[in-house]
Write a structure and sequence with these properties.
By secondary structure, the protein is an alpha/beta fold. The protein is built from 9 helices and 7 strands. The chain has a single domain, classed as Alpha/Beta hydrolase fold, catalytic domain (Rossmann fold).
């Protein structure tokens, strides 16, 4: 079965009971479903856990043309839920995946029972991310060490990126990498996430590692606290990737939130 526009469907990984409430996990840029590997076993006792590889990432196609826009990615994520017959789901997004989750809710609000954003920047004014600027000619020759250095701001100092995530970056094309980053910037520049979320009115949990080195955590936390009804939980001692740096604490906060929805 294909999704709209004749595109192949996004690859999906499923874990947990098929009759449990659905939880859709959306990874960030330059990552894949594998970024959730440590978290998933902590969630499957209560949820049917669904993971997708966004276009340009993991097992998905990596076309050279357009289609990497956040709204396009959100549409494909919604189509994946439709294809699986999952019905409504709590949608969780890490970093850029939180923007995709928001776009999904904007387009298909009936599919989303609640949103969880994990270290998703609220707007470009809060960005502190160092610029990663590899030339196309460099891309095929990048070493593991160069990739790890480029990824280092995604974690607290001393946390080494798992080899699987290094391989995910290596598996991308230069075009997919740069187009995804540009799409994320454009989505946040068009309208800040807290404004989009306030208009949606969907139940919202924001988890934010206080030691994030890609976003100003204090600014992000304050911005999301301005969303009516939002539950915002700072995570002390955690950087940009809580599901990798501290899976138990991330899972506990997520399950406490989803437990309130059932």
């Amino acid at each position: 079965m294909t999704i709209s526009g004749g595109e192949p469907p996004l690859p999906v990984t499923q874990d947990g009971p098929r009759d449990a409430p659905a939880l859709l996990l959306i990874h960030g840029s330059a990552s894949s479903t594998r970024s959730w590997d440590a978290l998933v076993p902590l969630l499957t006792g209560a949820h049917r856990v669904l993971r997708i590889d966004l276009l340009g990432h993991g097992r998905s196609a990596k076309p050279d043309g357009p289609g990497y826009g956040i709204a396009d990615q959100g549409r494909r994520a919604a189509a994946a839920l439709d294809r699986l017959g999952a019905g409504q789901a709590v949608v969780v997004g890490h970093s850029t995946g939180g923007s995709v989750a928001t776009a999904l809710a904007e387009q298909r609000p009936g599919l989303v029972t609640a949103l969880v954003l994990v270290n998703t920047g609220p707007g470009m004014a809060a960005s502190t991310a160092p610029k990663v600027d590899f030339a196309p000619s460099q891309w095929p020759r990048l070493t593991d060490e160069q990739i790890r250095q480029a990824m280092s701001s995604a974690f607290n100092p001393g946390f080494e990126a798992p080899q699987a995530l290094v391989d995910d970056v290596r598996g991308m094309t230069h075009h997919a990498f740069t187009a995804t980053l540009q799409a994320s910037r454009e989505y946040l520049e068009q309208k800040a996430l807290p404004d989009r979320l306030a208009a949606l009115g969907v139940p919202l949990l924001v988890l934010f590692g206080e030691d994030d080195r890609r976003w100003r955590a204090d600014a992000a936390i304050a911005a999301y606290r301005g969303v009516p009804g939002a539950l915002v939980e700072p995570l002390p001692g955690v950087g940009h990737s809580p599901m990798l740096e501290d899976p138990p604490r991330t899972a506990a906060a997520l399950l406490a939130f989803t437990g309130r929805r059932t």
